[in-house]
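This part of the workshop introduces the protein records we will be handling. Getting from the letters to the tokens is the skill we practise here. An example says more than a description, so a record of this kind follows:
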Amino acid sequence: MTTARTAAVRRQPSVWPVVVTVGAAAVLWAVSLQKEGYATRYPAVPIAFAAFLSIQLLVPRVRWNSDRVLGPGNVAALLFFLQLVVIPTLFVLSGPILGTLRFRPSDNYINHALLLQVGAYACYTVGYVAWAKPARPKPFLLEPRFTTGVAFYFIAFGAVGVALAFGSIGALVAYFSGQATILTDPEPTTASSFAAQFLRPFLAYGVIVLWALRVARRQPGARLQPMEAGLIVVAIAASAIYDYNRASAAIPLLALVTAYSRFGRRLSPIRIVALLGAVAFAGFLFGGYRDIYQGTRGGAISESAAGLDHPRPTFADYLQSYGNGPQFWAVIVQEVDRTGTRQSDSVVSSAMYPVPELGKAFRNDSAPIEYNALIYGEPEIIDQILGFGAELYWNYGSAGIVVGYFLLGLAVRRFDDGLEAAPDALAAYNWSYCGTWVALMVINSISILSQIVVYFFWPIFAMSAIGYLARSHLLARSQPVEALP
């Protein structure tokens, strides 16, 4: 065996952490089965364990890859691990939570839903390994002075958006002190509110461009400098100004960590695990605070009057809820069993749902509206996510999951390869940020991805267009002029 081949074998991601974890979960299932616990009700659980472990053993390309850190492929792997190992283990220990559901679907439907999630992972894997064309390196950082100017223009645009959104420094301070006015009914869309929503993402992205420029000038392997850390803090703060939405700040942080590990200093697995644990724990604590703040209308009423004096959901409950456990898919499985598939009635409507003005005509027929009506029994409450796979099944049956997750695997692989080929930190951030939102389709919905693309991808689109025009201009100037006859 040559040295190159030996190195390639050594660089294959290790599967032993997965083997140990799934083995421990299987032991818990076996103990519960012997005691006639929840394991007897959910025979799909060991199938989920076996399927996840088999794919990890047979397909090294979909394992956790330390070269991608928290890139799209690794995020998708974590989410499938959550759905097929962690949540089924919680089923074995304490059963499925009811969450916001008015009723818990029968065990048969929950088992069916878990098997659909197993099939979704298999189809994702096929799509992920089917893409073989390497990505071409595409730089996003141009000449430093020019790129710095673009960054400051972006920051100025974003500052205008923040001013339009908050109106005063006092309102911005109140927001970051946890006393924002987020309880009023949504106002009609105006030119000012649309501009505020459209421009705000440019602030964080402009700061990230400045950060990437500093990373490009540093020595590889050097420690994070105070100025670089400060820019990261400002970028995350600027990303956290969307009604206390946790993902709007968490996803840029993951993308920045990934870009830093690629072009700054490689992060150890222990630090990555610690970071993920800190982000998850902070999100859990903040979610509890936000629920109480909203329920008590900023402290205007007591927790008992708001119906919040009962025991709060645990961290394990949040894992089932935000991980889109099979009991939530089972609501749709039961509905399809009763009324049949919708024949693509909601997919276009869900994609158009977040689009300003144009989406109004589609909203009543969209999956978020219909799914929340199934949960609550009334159309006024719309706060629960219908998972991507569940909506595909609702519209197309099992064939929808096969095609949809195959395409999802293709897309995540494309973003992963773009991240691997990224020639600078800004390119790595862009591929990681966009790809992570796509990978989150494992637990998110079509309407959420559409909303993110409509409102948050514009700075990256603009930077890509600016780079294309700048390179085209430079190439045109560098072409030799043919001699006149």
Confidence is low (pLDDT under 50) at residues 1-10, 480-485. The CA atoms of residues 169 and 346 lie 42 Å apart. The two ends are 61 Å apart (CA to CA).
